[in-house]
Hints:
111 residues, mainly alpha, 59% helix
Amino acid sequence: MFGKLLAIIVVLAVMALALLVERQKRYETMLEVSRTHTRILEQERAIWRFRADVAQRIRPAEVREALSKVAGTWMPMPHRLDQPQPPTAPRLAADQLDGAAPATQPVRFGG
């Protein structure tokens, strides 16, 4: 009887220790995720500071002058590559999405 009680206590103690180990691993994982997230935010802030510095220091005239010194024809990019393609023609709010004629005459700007 004493042996069975001792075995039960030992098994419960081992289970409790295993549970504590798993909980500690979970806490360490959450801490690592939090630190990684903080590090990513700091790097994004640094990138935005660098972009602001570049935008502040670069002047369009200087860019044109530098491009004129380089051989070849330069053209502006039509759109950003990380953005979806812009629409080919502007669409007014009165325009129908299915291609049907609008119910009212669209407003025209600029004569």
